Amino acid sequence: MVPMLYATTATTRLDHIRANLDAIRARVGGRLVLAAVKADAYGHGAVPVSRMLEATGAADCLGVATVDEAIAIRDAGVRLPILKLSHALGDDEVAACVERDVDLAVVSAETIDQVGRVAAGLGRTASVHLKVETGMRRIGCQPDAAPDLARRADAAGLRLRGLFSHLPVSDTEGGREFTEAQVALFADVLDAVTAARGRVEIAHLANSGGVLMHPGSWFDMVRPGIMVYGLLPDPTTPATVPLLPGLEWTTRVSFVKDVAAGESVGYGRTWVAPRDTTIATIPVGYGDGYSRLLSNRGRVLIGGASYPIVGRVCMDQTMVDLGPDSTVATGDEVALVGRQGDEEITVQDIADLMGTIPYEVTCLINARVARAVVG
Ligand SMILES: Cc1ncc(COP(=O)(O)O)c(C=O)c1O
User: Fold this and answer.
1) pLDDT tens by residue, 89-106
2) Residues 6+ apart with CB under 8 A from 68
3) Which atom of ligand 1 sits closest to the CA of residue 171?
4) Strand, helix or coil at 162?
5) CA of 166, closest atom in ligand 1
């Protein structure tokens, strides 16, 4: 294999991710914990994260969005229970999950019948979790349909392992009333399903917002995602659990040059030096997932000091203003996300500048970026 020589590296801190899960466990008492590892563990690397979670016992279950994500984790030898959080589309997807012991979400009579038929054809028992609509209005059966659908799953020979729903505003104070109504509705649905066919093994509702703000949403298992990676779902969510950043993103200075007052830097000539200065070029750009929205707005750390991005972020390179008296040299380490001395740039800082959420910032870091795993 050709060694990865690219200076721009995203480093996953497995030790921090594990500490975050330990802190989540401490908060939710004896409940089970499903760690969402979809979207390549929110850009942190689903395989190394899942392997660590299994080896340490830090999580009881893994949550994925796609069948390919589940397959990649199973192919890496991870045996932890996996739940595909959305229903499978098509018999091939169902079969791929059933063959690999991946639990499936079911959302309707059709999806229940499909899993039952495919599993019977394979001579296997499929495990399913019935997703109920309580306010997200994305996927899920209507609350009053849940008892009949649960019985239908039983009759189809499925193992009805879970009943679940999802919380769209659990992470803000303004969403408290809505979330509490969802929790109450979900509890009613759980009671109705229990009356119809006995208790499901695992009722689950809480995402990170639920873990952080709504103890009533914890039921038998919680499903945190973003907080596993050390980030709050919203800047206003109370940090009721201590969290450590799951990712550092670094590069190295590739070029240093003097720029005279009045000279412009970069495409579109959007920045003109107000004084004689020194500019560093760093080999990272929107082609790596370092957003162009950071043009003339973002900053980086070099040698423990903070320097502004000047001009537009290019596809492969970005320029920063070192000021007139800089000693920064080619090869110096640059923190795009992370800490140097007393200075820190967080994923939330970048999300704020981009006008987005931290989830998107880490998911944007793409395959061109070299990957390292520590801890
Ligand atoms: C069904 C479901 N459960 C749990 C999560 C985890 O959410 P969060 O990352 O906000 O904790 C997600 C992610 O969006 C999800 O779709």
Assistant:
1) 999 999 999 999 999 999
2) none
3) 10
4) strand
5) 1
Q: Residues with Cβ < 8 Å from 55, sequence gap 6 or more?
A: none
Q: What are the residue ranges of helices labelled H in 123-218?
A: 146-155, 176-197, 208-213
Residue 16 lies in a domain: no
Is the C-beta atom of 233 inside 6 A of ligand 1?
yes
Please check whether residues 82 and 155 belong to one and the same domain: yes
- Stretch 155-178: mean pLDDT: 98
Residue 10 within a domain = no
User: 232 C-alpha to center of ligand 1: Å?
Assistant: 12
Instruction: Point out the residues that are catalytic.
Output: 38, 267
Containing structural domain, residue 348: 247-374
Cα-based distances in Å from 333 to 109, 254, 309, 326, 367: 56, 10, 16, 15, 21
Cβ atoms < 10 Å from Cβ of 370: 17
261/350 same-domain check: yes
208 pocket-lining for ligand 1 (C-beta < 6 Å): yes
Q: Does one domain contain both 323 and 215? A: no
